[in-house]
Fold these 4 entries.
Entry 1:
Amino acid sequence: MFTKQLSTPLKLIKRCYNRVTPEIISSLKHQLGEGQISTSQSVREHHGKDESSIRITIPDVVVFPQTTKDVSMVLKLCNHNEIPVIPFGTGTGLAGGVSPLMSCVSMDLTKMDQIVDLHVEDFDVTVQPGVTRKQINNYLKDYGLMFPVDPGADASLCGMAATSASGTNAVKYGTMKSNVLNMEVVLADGTVIHTAGKGRRSRKSAAGYNLTNLFIGTEGTLGVITSATLKLYGIPEMKTSAVCQFKTVGGAIRSTIEVIQNGIDIARIEFLDEMSMRLCKRYSKLDYMSEEPTLFLEFQGSQKTIEDYIELTSQITKSNGGGEFMYTLKQEDTNQLWAARHNYFYAVLASSPNKKSYTTDVAVPISRLEQVVEEAREIINKSGFLGPIAGHVGDGNFHAILLFNPADAEEVQRCNHVAHEISKLALRHDGTCTGEHGIGLEKKLILPEEVGMESVDVMKKLKMALDPKGILNPGKLLA
Ligand SMILES: Cc1cc2c(cc1C)N(C[C@H](O)[C@H](O)[C@H](O)COP(=O)(O)OP(=O)(O)OC[C@H]1O[C@@H](n3cnc4c(N)ncnc43)[C@H](O)[C@@H]1O)c1[nH]c(=O)[nH]c(=O)c1N2
Ligand SMILES: CC(=O)C(=O)O
Ligand SMILES: [Mn+2]
């Protein structure tokens, strides 16, 4: 009953979207000014895709608002005319979130790139949606502060909130969900809200529903995030990176599990399997390492704390068959190590220039990690696809990057099927199909299996309440 009531109006909404007409484009020009709107083919192509392999169509027009008022005006106009709008951060997403399915307006937020308000003494900062991860950290370093959530790519911070991003540091500092205190969001009808109340930035609040976390991970389907107030941290006194290589995948994964279970406050613990190491060595010149399952680690804190952690962690890796525990204080080596990790995705792509990639993103409770990584490897080997595995194993989160031939329809379908099998494997082990990249277009079909149809119906009800004409990023996240 509940499902029927919700799915019928959603279907109706899908049928009655309007196209972006020349009249709409001139209204947008009139509202925003000539310089803030583009219909050029190359600009539209850039906004029709992210870093995944998904390519469907391109937006009819791209708008570049400079203020929250601009965002609100565009949404009002598009809502009135029932025209889809897709927010665009920096296009580094990996789930097809910015790819249009129909005639639409792409809303590029990069011109709103101001750091609005820094409170050094309270460890928080408010940024506009175009501010990126590298931009904020460059700005903060003179104050001895940092924002730790690090997806590797130089993504926009509000795009990161929209996808509930994390990355290598989440094992210590948490994800976007635990690091955003407040957001300004413009709803489909142009209404501007502040999820925790205007200007509020207390560390805790029990004031009603948690609207901040409601909007995190909504992938542009419930509102456009026009500012975010973020938690900051002091730059650690000292950082030490380390590497340990193993004869078996099991040894590396068991070491990770024991590090976490022993409460070691590790800052990063990243796994790369043999194949990943082969590709990274080639791409990033990691000459001193071999092609074996490997852990990249980072410890932070005082010298004494780091020494204690290194001692404990090296005992753990040794007891699991790990080789030499190599650690370094040299900034040069540390930079090379983490650049190699951040370029992992591109190292894999570079290995097969004619292929495209499907990046899986499952996360499971840490006690299940060894079994799930092993079973994922079996699924991939059986399928015959090349699929190196690497990831943020301290959070039980890993990626298999499946490489397929985009010109072979049967192979594309088989690749989707393998990715789906890996997601289902994670669900059987109480995990999720996406630890950090989001649902986008890729994982819509498995969402009901993960959260249950009743929960999907609640999501649809929320969508209906906040965006009754369904103009915000239609066809994403919810099937
Ligand atoms: C090499 C590499 C490596 C990684 C990753 C990418 C790449 C290329 N990513 C994925 C990516 O960096 C991550 O999804 C970012 O959060 C996307 O931010 P963008 O600003 O690029 O959003 P992008 O423009 O790609 O948009 C993503 C989604 O958010 C919506 N959106 C964007 N801005 C919005 C706004 N202001 N308001 C509302 N909706 C908005 C869009 O509509 C879309 O649905 C990742 N991620 C991760 O979590 N961990 C990782 O380890 C990595 N690693
Ligand atoms: C692609 C990605 O998420 C990673 O390299 O961690
Ligand atoms: Mn990742």
Note: Residues 238-345 form a domain with the Alpha-Beta Plaits fold (CATH 3.30.70.2190).
Entry 2:
Amino acid sequence: MRAPPLLPATLLRQARHQLVESGCCPPDMLDARLARSWQRSFSAGLQPLGCAAELDPLPPRTLQQMQVQNHGLIRHSLPIMEYLFAQVRQSHSMVILADSQGVLMHTLGDLDFLSKVERVALACGASWHESQRGTNAIGTALAEVDGIEVHGAEHYLERNGFLTCAAAPILSATGELAGILDISGDQRSRHPHTLGLVSTAARMIENSLLLSGCQHHTVLQLHPQPEGLGTIAQGLIALSDAGWLVGANRPALQLLGLRATALGSTSWGQCFATALQQVHGHPRTAGGPLLLRTGAGHLLYAQVQAPRSNLSVPVTPAPAVTTADALAQRDTGDLRWRNAADKARRMAAKSIPLLVLGESGVGKELFAKAAHEASPRRDAPFVAINCAALPEHLIESELFGYAPGAFTGARKQGSPGRLRQAQGGTVFLDEIGDMPLSLQTRLLRVLQERQVTPLGCGDPVAVDFWLICATHQPLRAAVEQGRFRSDLYYRINGLTVQLPALRERTDLHALTHHLLAELDGPPGLHLDPTLMQALARYDWPGNLRQYSNVLRTAVALLEPHEQCISWSHMPDDVLQSLQVLQDSTPTPPPPPSVLPAASLQTLSQQAIAQALQAHQGNVSAAARQLGISRQTLYRRLREHGH
Ligand SMILES: Nc1ncnc2c1ncn2[C@@H]1O[C@H](COP(=O)(O)OP(=O)(O)OP(=O)(O)O)[C@@H](O)[C@H]1O
């Protein structure tokens, strides 16, 4: 990223000084994207010369979860990153893959050229979002959704001036930002072709993602010359059975004069003058390419790849999921849970709608996510929508999307809607029992017709997803009372699975072991046996949400030399209930070295304050982190005098 020719570092520093002094970049001096990025960095309150502490990278467990979530992207990027690294091996550089938030997920390179501090900054789990590190290739490519080079003093923070970086966005088949590919190195080793190299590699990853994610659609390779077919310059489009364009790479969008937002709502006939029947009658085995005429009258050569049936989509294991699938990884031995997982796997293979029932906090959403990750659709998105958390008037546009300018306050470019964002993947509708009746009718129509019609636009769009719904309400009773449509109930309920409440589970010891392993505690972390016995008798009204949170808080309270979670690490409300249980049983009372109530109260206040601060005062998010309901959090705040 720069206004050619490269500006000298002293001039750049003066310009940045002027920005800090006056709040504005000097006019006409900088490349427009660099000026915008500096302005964003300035507005984020970053100090170019400041030495504010670096944010810690994600803890290993969170990083691993994120890598599992992005395993499709990582899997398709790895061979290309290795190829790229072979090209830059001798130039003191690294090849980096970041997720769509700028967090580094995978790096290749030898770190000799970096000091220890710099190594930490470029390690997996570190965020290079502009809001945290100012102008830099990864964060700025993310903000601009465009390929960018940021060299030396163009970085907003002086301490990053030793770097030269080039980054390009990687887009999904439906045009959403999937991640960022970057080459970073010592600024003395800058090469003018690096950005071109990274951009080409990003396109190769996009093509690989599209070809793998759209295997169950007809895929066409397109190019104005037959020799261009099969090269990096070719266009790729994916067509649904009904002839809707459901995926495309950037060259294809350019050839057809389309924007990515048109995907899913544009039919074959709107783009091509040639009849669709000719495509279906022309498989790859027919020999030479097919000649197509676009609606604008241009000729394109095409190679046709027929869809694979849903069942034949190969299930390749995710990098972090080696021997067991994502459901099996969460299986800690409870037979009811295992039975539910077995059924979910079978429904996934045939995309039969699944209804997950269970009390609040039993892990319905995590179960649904694991079922998606264990399904043939796992390379496509998992889109979770909480019907209870959205205001009624927003659910409609959120789910079904809207055309540009459909209503006051709508985004200018319109929105595809969450159902379309899940194309090829899984939609998880949480708290489906809270969906208003009027929207139940619309949802039913979508499920019957497998098409969505965005608000303010008459064209229906074909959609393909596996539907998982969840509720903690007795949905059958809601049907009998007329609050839930019976036809929708039968439509979403291909099969019901009931997840057991925590107090009903027979695998508490193994489950505890699993939860502790996820917490990143000290080596040898374990529970006092008397406490474990008492925990097994407690009825856990908040289920796994409450239990995992109690364990998390307990681990945080351990002194550096401690490995054993004991009575003193329990929160006061749980402790009181445990003691009541203990008193009412004949087993010998434990020797709890209980902290005084006042200090437990203080700890609870501190935990609440920290959670609120971490989420900028967002009560719902803080409650989620603490593992308590919003109402409980409000009650605690009132008790603490807020
Ligand atoms: N297997 C698990 N391992 C670790 N933590 C878990 C597990 N299952 C659930 N949890 C914890 O419980 C919390 C709640 O899980 P989840 O949101 O899936 O429950 P839910 O049943 O969908 O809740 P609700 O009905 O309130 O939406 C998670 O955020 C997580 O902290």
Note: DSSP finds 26 helices and 19 strands in the chain.
Entry 3:
Amino acid sequence: MATVADIKSALENVKYPGFAKSIIEFGFVKDVQVDGSACSILLDITSSAKEVEEQLRKEISAVLSDLVENVTINIKKPQEPKQHSNSVSGKNIAPHIKNFVMVSSGKGGVGKSTTTVNLAVAAAMQGKKVGILDADIYGPNIPRMMGLQGKEVEVIGNKAKPFNAYGVDVMSMGSLMQEGQALIWRGAMIMKAIEQLLRDILWEELDILFIDMPPGTGDAQLTLAQSVPVTCGVNVTTPQHVALDDSRRSLDMFSKLHIPIGGIIENMSGFICPKCGEESDIFGMGTCEALAEQYNTQVLGNLPIEPAIREGGDAGKPVVYFQPESESAKRYMKATQKLIEYINEVSDKVENASIQPTTPPGVSACSTAGAAKSSNHSHGGGCGCH
Ligand SMILES: Nc1ncnc2c1ncn2[C@@H]1O[C@H](COP(=O)(O)OP(=O)(O)OP(=O)(O)O)[C@@H](O)[C@H]1O
């Protein structure tokens, strides 16, 4: 029968992967116990790599196979360093903002800006210090939706002060560009614009900055992910299968950029008749559950087509603030609560501020001229009850 000394002596033949010394010489073997034909070993190693653990398990089992029948190997190792969206660039150009939520959609017109506004206002109503950065350079609708259209930006030094509406700090490319001016955005310009919106705006200390991205997966998403540690992404989609295919691309992008997925908002999920209050299925309902499961995330909420949502958007009066008793407002509040819970779970205990900022002197974004596109589509229709 093998003894502890026999086991230790066999383990002297197991080299620590990548080194000439054995795990015994390194002092990584912390405990060996033998019980008849079984033995258990406790290792405490310095690498978090999966490959190192796998190799050690294989080699230990091999050297002990003649001595004992059953081997239990327990390995203590450091936690794998967490990948952030900015892990490669190491940049964090807005360290005083605790959490960044990237609101994305696979395609345009699905209600991404509407969702951003209502989630942000709901988060402020739930006591958070919140901002919205409208980075949708192709169609910056946030000023209209927050009742800020046409307001002049206040410039202090060479930085711009965000507006405040309904308890939320807001800055939009739309407020910095001259309305109606067309501009073709190319890669480098998009990157510069996104960086300036983070660096040259006097953002206060915020708990959450919601960022309304241009639709799709392009340079803007990449730049943002490399510029700050994005806490999580929220995907907005409508329930039709064609929209879900686009959403997959958007969700794949989150994964590639190491952005945790906070959840999916299924927008225009059914229709609530303003006259009878009845909910009817128009584009399909509940189709995002399977998508959420596939990406190991959650559906934050199913938002119906409700005229009050569109009217609130057009009038600059977010439904969650002005009609808190409406079904949509309640669902936005619930979705926000779920999102905040998720943020609390994933956000590191390490303060964002402890990641060293890189702040080369920037040029004020206020000088940037461009286009403001307004794309408010109305979703009317009826449930057929009248
Ligand atoms: N659940 C809803 N019920 C009723 N109207 C809605 C709903 N969601 C969005 N809308 C309306 O649909 C239109 C498009 O919404 P929004 O601008 O938020 O979409 P988007 O995805 O941000 O579009 P873009 O790609 O142009 O930025 C707006 O008029 C908005 O008020």
Note: Residues 107 and 215 are 5 Å apart (CA to CA).
Entry 4:
Amino acid sequence: MRPTIGQYPATRFRRLRKSDALRRLSQENALSVNDLIWPLFVREGENVSEPVTSMPGVQRLSVDLIVKAAEEAAELGIPAICLFPYTDPDNRTDDCAEAWNPDNIANRAIRAVKAAVPHMALMTDVALDPYNANGHDGLVQDGIILNDETVEALVKMTLAQADAGADIIGPSDMMDGRIGAMRLALEMSGHKDVAILSYAAKYASAFYGPFRDAVGAGSRLVGDKNTYQMNPANADEAMRLIERDLTEGADMVMVKPGLPYLDICRRAKDTFGAPTYAYQVSGEYAMIMAAAANGWIDGEKIMLESLMAFRRAGCDGVLTYFAPRVARILQGKA
Ligand SMILES: NCC(=O)CCC(=O)O
């Protein structure tokens, strides 16, 4: 596109900003409930809603309350939720075997949600960190994160989630070769219509801090994730990763974190045209909530502005903890 600009006063940009009607008429992007994926944290128990201190307004919910949240999401028109497990400490081991247990907390929640709200698209998380004694996304040997052995474990985890009824598999682990391995396993096991939303460009970011509290992985993490997550200084590499994952069979791709990486979202959309998502991560959410709680910003306006920014950057959708709040506003139910 080559923008045409006439000379002043023939061109006055303020003409189209004169009234609300003209501003709406000339608006380029829109935010809708169809763009939202709501991440939820699931834990053991019944009727348990446990606040996540660093994420005001976010709770870890027992399966029965996850079902209620899914019903609320459906009523608000939110098309998808994404489940993250808070695993009991006893089930966090070096071999991560709980990750592919068909009856682990995540798989039980998938079954319960699909039974209650079958039309809700259910996205999962595929990474070993909620099940790992040392908080890493992959199997660890002598301080090294093993790639190929981890991919085998992730495939088992993927199949258990697909068997439980997952619609969208969300590999967030950043191992090499996992998308191809998962896609092949899904094809071979009768799950050919299960979609993969690849965390293709996931950066080694400090913005994930509150999330690690939410899933109980933060205090366990030994070292950092720099050998598998991306260097925040890199952009060309993100394009290569996205192309690689699309080629291996990803249906959708994600950039994560969100707002600090909008340049990557735009480039990804322009380069590949694939369904592209961003994750407005826990640290982004926490910063907005904390500043709003102090009265330093207008939290609601900043929430809406930040979500619109993803649409402007070319994203087809956003994973955001604000999903139900923004959906209520967009549906006139606030
Ligand atoms: N796989 C999910 C994450 O690693 C973090 C998300 C967040 O910080 O909200």
Note: Residues 125, 127, 172, 208, 211, 281-282 surround 5-azanyl-4-oxidanylidene-pentanoic acid (CB under 6 Å).
